Every structure is written in structure tokens, then in C-alpha cells.
Amino acid sequence: MGTDAPQRLPAKAMAAMSLRGAPSVVSLLIGGFLYWDRPGLWPGPAAVYLIGGLLILRLVHPVYAWATLRYAISKDDFSLTRGLLFRTTSTTAWRDVLVVDIDSPWAFRRFGLGVVSLRSGGQDDAKIDVPGIDHADLEAIVGLARAHGVPGAQSARSGSAASGVHGTVPGLSDTTGRTVLYTARRRDLAAANLIYGHVVVLGTGAVLAVVDTADQLTILDGAMEVFGSHPLAGSLALCGAVLLGGSVAAVVKYHEFTVSSDPAGLSIRYGWLSTNQRDVRSSAVGGITARRNLIEMLLDRVRVALLTTDSDAQMGTNMVLPSLPRRQVTQILDTSLPELPRPALLKSSGRGSVAGSLVLFAAIGVPALGFGWVLHRVTGGALVLAAVATVALWCVLSLVVRLARARFSVAGNRVGWVSRSFVDHEVVLAATSLHSVSATGARAARVSLVRAHYFAGRPKTLAALSFSRAVPDQMGRLVEDTSPEIAALRRHPTVKQPTTEEFVHP
Amino acid sequence: MASTQADGRGKWSASGRAARTHAYALTLPPVALHYLMIRSTVEVLMTGALACGLALWLVPDGWRLPTLVVMAILIISGLIVDVPIVSRLTMRHTSYHVGADAVRIKRGYLLSKDTVLSTAQILNVSIIEGPLLRRLGLAKVRFTTLNHVEPLGPVERGVAVEIRRQALSTYIEASTGGH
Fold first, then answer.
1. Contacts of B117 in chain A (CB under 8 A)
2. Residue A505, Ramachandran bin (φ over 0: left; ψ between -120 and 50: alpha; else beta)
3. How high is the pLDDT of residue A172?
4. Is the pLDDT of residue A157 over 50?
5. Sheet of A99-105, strand order
6. Among A436, A443, A446, which would you mutate to test the B interface (most chain B Cβ atoms within 10 Å of its Cβ)?
7. How far is B142 from chain A (nearest CA, A)?
8. Which fold has domain B95-176?
9. Sign of the C-alpha dihedral, residues B26, B29, B30, B36?
């Protein structure tokens, strides 16, 4: 258990940070050897010195980080001091901590260390990261944060017992005392990532990494010759490699994706090489989003994610339920998360939206392609210009269609926003999350552009057309009526001001 | 303020609700028209002078005179339209209501924008006084939330202070327990 006095990270944190940086050290060594062996390669012999400098920085960084970092745990707050010439001390009160992220990267796990992030807002300035903290202090941090309202206080107390599951950090693999809402199977993860495109991003990254390695090992030219002589087989192999690499990367990254809950809030845990746990306090949840793309419409699946004070990101952050059959999503939300609002997308089958989605897709795509074709003819074959113009027009038309198809609704003390275009997207916001509402329109007309401003990691705005004055009036009334409730939650800051001594290392 | 009750909360129930679809009770003071007209004049003349300077620098000799004539016409049109007409429309079609729970501002003639801000979400209220505003006894008010900044004014200096007090009253009451 930590004390009020500033303390260093354990010395083995240096070894963990060095181990985490080992792959890049190996890459730099290989690169350095290649440039030393072949000085004719671009950009020339200077690359050896550049790589040497980077290598020294990489080797020195763990020692520097360990030597210049101090942290102090008190019953009221947590302080972190970094830097040598320019020293920065960040302090956050436990009662202001809305989200606790605990990572256990593979290199740290070997030493029984973890990486903890305390988030009290949406900006990076409102986040404190501590890399390489040991079991006892991590347990103390998790316990204090959870005792002040971040979910899973029971698991924090029983963290040591649970740490054996991964042999890692207490609390990370523990769902004792919490209701497990959902655990993704490998095939669910592979299917979900395939459906909403993560597989392409991850798979392309994996393939590019392989290509880069082959290039460094000077076997790329040989491989290209083989693929060049069999273009069809080469293309199929490349697609297969992207899909396989992406699926494997997705399964590794989101391994054992588990969502659990307790009265204080939700916990999301996943990862194999690097295990992540994210505890979200209920008061940090400002709303919920539901989405489905064309493939999910056909399969009648829906994705559900939270909107929290610190983020509106999905997979890997606030995703509660990855792409799942609509009835299963409804069942999980009804039985386990009754306090969350029910998105309207769950009431209707996605298959009913397919025809409209395809029509809108064509209505946008045909003019964009036509414009690109005309531009291509007029400019006498400027293909890049035509392609850029096509994509730009497609983006503009997509925004116009999404805005035209978006609608606001008010139910109780929640505001709903739905846009049904070539993707279905719905946001349900608690009225207490709304900062302001505006309606802009011609004086004589009843049509107005309604905009609702809220905060989820960054300033966000929902916009929709309204064909009656009733909706913006209701939203304005809701903003007004919930104001006393929001004000009651606000209070004087509790963070103590750092003393002079806290800026000075012992 | 006329629309404030003794406990700091705005009179919403009847007049406030009705006002949402029309103008709000409070408008800019008559002296604000002088400010708006002077500001418009300065803006038009400064923009015109800058444009003329650029024209003299960049436009070829043969085109310089016609360009300057067009510029002069635009500047005169701006002074005729913007200064007396737009300033009066801005003045006439800006109304607001500041209560303990919400700030409501309506502005615009052709395109009307009606904004409602939760006072509990307001992080700060700024009162801005430039030399001209100070000379006319006016000030502008700026409401800042986490993701939105909404200006209001110009209004009389005393009214600006009262607006700030009222907009922050919800937070002050909540944080001091009403004491």
C-alpha cells in the first residue's frame, strides 16, 4: 500500500519498459546493420548515426522514466510528478475519477506490473498514466478509486486472490461480485470484426508489417516476382492474408472480451498480449449509441456502445456489446442493464432497412461517379483529380443525406437522435448530458435545423432537421428542467494544491 | 431584472413558455444601436481600405481604376445597407431571457436562431468592455460551456453584471448549499 510520501516505481519497471521496447531495439539493430553493411542505401551513411541515436534514446528512456517519476497515493487523491528540467505534478481527487483503465502489457505481466490510467475528463490533460506500478500499489489505487464510486469495489478487495487467473495484476481478471453480461467467443470476435471492418485495418497493418520485414530481409523482390507471374493467385493470397491476419489480430487484441456490471457501473475487459480493463462509473455514462451497417442490417445485428464523459470511441473503449443478433442485444439489456435506455433500432429488424439503404447508397454513388466521369472526360484523363472529386462529392452528399434523414425525439428525460441512411445510427442522451440546444430556421417557415451540444471525450454536436416547433421546444424545456439536477451534482473541487516539496525529488 | 424572482429563479411558467416561439421579454437597450452602427461603419471602412490597398498592390495598371470604382460602390452599398438597416434589424430581432435554470437567446431576422443553454453547464460568464462599449456604458456577455461559447449583447453594464449573477446562481446555490 502506498503512502502520502512520493515514491519511485519499483526497479523492475525499468526491466519491464526495456522488455516492451525490445522489438523496436531489435528492429533498429537490424536496420543499423543493414545501413552499415550497405552504405549505398538511401539516405546514405548518415542513417547509421540516426539509428544509433534512436537506439541510445530507446535504451536510456526506461532508466530516465524510472528516475524522474514519482507518485503519491493518499486517501483523498493521487499525485504524479514527471520530468527532470521541466517538472510537472498532476493531482486528481479520487472522487473526480470517472474511469480507471488498467493495462497489463505482455512485458509488464512477466514482472507482475501493470499500467494504470485515471481519467477525470475527456482531455489528455485530465488523464494520469502510471506505467509499471506494482501489485500492492495498483490494488490500493483500484481500491481507492472504486471506494469512491468507480465500479467493482468488491473485486478490488479480493484482487490478490483473483490475480492468479492470468498471473498478472489484481482486479484485472476478476469479476467476483459482479454480473457478467457478456463474454465474446473467438468466432463472435472474428465475425464482429469482419462485419464492421476492423479486420481490414488490422489485417492491412499485419500484411504491411510482413512486407516491411521482407523488404528489410531483402526477400521482397523475389516474392514480388513470384506474385507478378501469377497475378490472380497473388491477389487472392493477398486478400486471404489480410482477412486471416486481421481475424487473428482481432482475436488476439479482443481476447476474452468480457463486460460485467455492479451497482457502481460497468467494467469492460479484453486482450491477450496486452490485457486491458476499463471501469466506468455510472455517473460518467451520458448516453448510449446503437449502429448497424449494411451487412448487419442483412444479418439483423446491432452494436451497442456507451457515451462516457471521457470518450465516444467504440471497440476497445466503450463498446458494451459487439455486433450481436438484435434479439440477443435486447435480452442482455433487458435482463442486465435495465437502467440504460433502449435504442429504437432494437425494435425493428435491420432487414427492413436494407432496400432503403441500397437506394440511398445508389442515389449518392451514381451522381458522385457521374460527376467524376464527366470531370475525367473534360480534363482529358486527369484520373487522380476525378477520383478526388468523386470521393469529395460522395462525402458531401453522404453528409447531406445523413442530416436530411436524421430526427430528434424527446421521451421522458432523454433525447433521442436517429439517422437512417445507408447506415443506421442512433444516439440516446440523458438530458443531464445536454449543454445547449439551438434551433435555426427561416422566420416564416416551420422547418428548423436543431443542434444539441454535449461532451463525450470532446465537444460533440448532434444535428437534425425538425418540421415542427414542438421538438426544439421540448428539448429546450428539458435543458431548463434538468439544470437544478446537474447543479446539485456540482461542488467545490477537492484536489489539494501541490506543495513546493512535491515538486522536488527527495 | 424584471424577470427575476426573489429566490433568483426566472419567471418561467407562463411568460417563459409562451416566449419560446416568439421573442423573449428582454431586448438590447436603445444605446446599443449606436454601438452597432459605429462598429458596422468601422468594419466596412476597414475592410474596404484593406481591399483597396490589396487592389492597388496586386491589380495590373489597366484594371486598377475600374477595380477601385467597384470597391467604392461596394463600400458605399455596405455603408447604406449594413450600417442603418442590418444594425437596426440586429437590434430589433435580438431578445433574451436569463433565469436560474437556463439562458435563452433569440437572434436573427431572415434566419432566426433560438439557443437554450443550461445554466448548470456554464463554466464561466465573461463580461467584455472595449473602449467604445465603455464610453457608451455598455458591455458584452459571453457564456462558456465545455463545448459552446454563446455571446450576448451589448447590454448596459449593470445588466451584464446582473446577467452574470443570475446565470451563475444555480451553481453558487448548489455549491454553497444555498447559503
1. 435-436, 479
2. beta
3. 44
4. no
5. A127-133, A114-119, A99-105, A274-281, A265-270, A258-262, A179-183
6. A436
7. 14
8. PH-domain like (2.30.29)
9. negative
pLDDT digits (tens, 9 = 90+) for A214-238: 666 666 677 767 666 776 777 777 7
Check whether the bond before A343 is cis (ω within 30° of 0).
no
Considering CB atoms only, which of B111, B150, B174 is closest to A487? B174
What SS3 class is residue A496? coil
Question: How far is B3 from chain A, CA to nearest CA, in Å?
Answer: 16
Q: Where are the domains of chain A?
A: 12-176, 186-253
| Closest C-alpha to A457, from B145, B124, B144, B146 | B146
For cell 505482455, name the residue: A106
Query: Taking CA A291 as the corner, what is the angle to CA A290 and CA A295, rounded to the nearest 5 degrees?
Result: 145
DSSP calls for A423-468: SEEEEEEEGGGEEEEEEEEESS-S-EEEEEEEESSSEEEEEEEESS
Residue in A395, A475, A464 with CA at minimum distance from that of residue A434: A475
**For residue A144, what is its C-alpha cell?**
481507492
What are the pLDDT digits (tens) for A344-383?
888 888 888 888 888 888 888 898 899 888 888 887 777 7
In chain B, count H helices and then E strands: 7, 7
- Alpha-carbon distance A277 to A280, whole Å? 10
Compute the nearest-CA separation of A269 from chain B (Å).
30
Question: Which amino acid makes up residue A189?
Answer: L
Cβ-proximal residues to A388 (8 Å cutoff; 6+ apart), any chain: none
Residue of B nearest to A451 (CA): B115
Q: What is the domain partition of chain B in residue ranges?
A: 33-90, 95-176
Which range (A11-15, A167-171, B44-48, B117-121) has the least confidence?
A: A167-171
Q: What one-letter code names the amino acid at A470?
A: A
What pLDDT, on the 0 to 100 scale, is given for residue A170? 41
